[in-house]
Specification:
alpha+beta, 5-stranded antiparallel beta sheet, 6 helices, 42% helix
C-alpha cells in the first residue's frame, strides 16, 4: 500500500477487526437490517451503514466518496513510453524490413519483425492504461434514492471525463490491495514524522517528489499496483481506483477494499 492511501485509524481498525473470526451468541435472533440486504448479487457488506449514508445523501444532496490524486505524471509517462515503443517499431521496421543497408538473412528479418510487433502491442497497452481511471465517486440524491456517480477519465486525450451512474448494490471490488498491520503502523509513524518536518515550501517539495512520482508511475504502468479494480453491473469495463487518493469512510461500506495480511503464528 502506498503512503497516499488516505484512511484514518478507525477505518484501519475496522479492517483488522473484520478479519478476525466471528462467533455468534446462542439464543440471539437475527434481525433484518434493511432492504439493502438482498438487493444486489454482490451482497453489500454493511447494509445498515448504507441506509444511514442514504439518509445523509438525501439531506446534503451529494457526498464525496473518492477523489483521485493527480494522474498527470502517470498519463505523461504512459504517453512517453508509448511514443518510444511506436518510434522504435516504425524505425526498425523501415531499417530492417523495408530499406536495409545490407541484405539480411530471413531469420533476422523475422526476429526484428516480431520485436516490432511486440513493441507496437506494448505501445497500445500503455495508451489503454490511461483509460478507465476513476476521477471521483459521489453518492447523489436521485428522486429520493441514493445513486453512485462515477467520473471516469477517457482514453482519448483532452476529452472530458464521462460519467457512469449505478445503484449502490451494483458495484463490487474485484481486485483489492493487501496490507499488513506492520505496514499500517509504519505508514502512520512516517506520516506523523513527515508532518512535523514539513518546513520547505510547497514548490520545492513538489520538485523533489517528481523523480519518485515518475518512478512510481512506471511501476504502476507495468504492474498495475496500488489500483483497486471496481466492477459495475451491466458494464464490461473494469474501472480503476488509485489508492493514493482520498477514500472516504463511507465508501468502505460498499465492500472490502483491503486484504489484511495477519502475521503467521505457530
Amino acid at each position: 500500500m502506498r503512503p497516499g492511501f488516505q484512511m484514518n485509524s478507525a477505518s484501519s481498525l475496522r479492517y483488522f477487526n473484520s478479519s478476525a473470526p466471528r462467533y455468534k451468541a446462542k439464543g440471539v435472533a437475527r434481525t433484518v437490517d434493511s432492504a439493502w440486504q438482498a438487493a444486489s448479487p454482490y451482497g453489500n457488506k454493511n447494509p445498515r451503514a448504507l441506509a444511514k449514508l442514504q439518509t445523509k445523501v438525501i439531506k446534503a444532496g451529494q457526498v464525496l466518496l473518492f477523489q483521485a490524486p493527480s494522474h498527470r505524471p502517470y498519463v505523461l509517462t504512459a504517453y512517453g513510453l508509448s511514443a518510444f515503443c511506436f518510434a522504435y517499431s516504425i524505425y526498425n521496421s523501415n531499417a530492417v524490413l523495408v530499406d536495409p543497408l545490407i541484405p539480411l538473412p530471413m531469420w533476422q528479418k523475422t526476429l526484428f519483425g516480431g520485436i516490432c510487433i511486440m513493441m507496437s502491442v506494448g505501445g497500445t497497452l500503455f495508451i489503454a492504461r490511461t483509460g478507465s481511471l476513476v476521477r471521483n465517486i459521489r453518492a447523489v440524491n436521485s428522486d429520493g434514492r441514493m445513486r453512485v456517480l462515477f467520473s471516469v477519465r477517457s482514453m482519448v486525450p483532452f476529452k472530458k471525463p464521462y460519467q457512469v451512474e449505478v445503484a449502490p448494490g451494483d458495484l463490487s471490488f474485484k481486485r483489492r490491495i493487501s496490507v499488513s498491520p506492520e505496514t499500517m503502523k509504519r505508514y502512520e509513524d512516517s506520516t506523523k514524522l513527515g508532518r512535523e518536518l514539513e518546513t520547505e515550501p510547497t514548490f520545492i517539495r513538489t520538485v523533489k517528489s517528481m523523480p519518485r512520482r515518475i518512478f512510481q508511475s512506471v511501476r504502476q504502468l507495468f504492474t498495475n499496483e496500488d489500483f483497486i479494480i471496481v466492477q459495475l453491473a451491466g458494464h464490461k469495463t473494469h474501472f480503476r481506483l488509485d489508492s493514493n487518493g482520498y477514500i472516504s469512510d463511507d465508501l468502505l461500506h460498499f465492500g472490502r477494499m483491503v486484504n489484511v495480511k495477519m502475521p503467521f503464528r505457530d
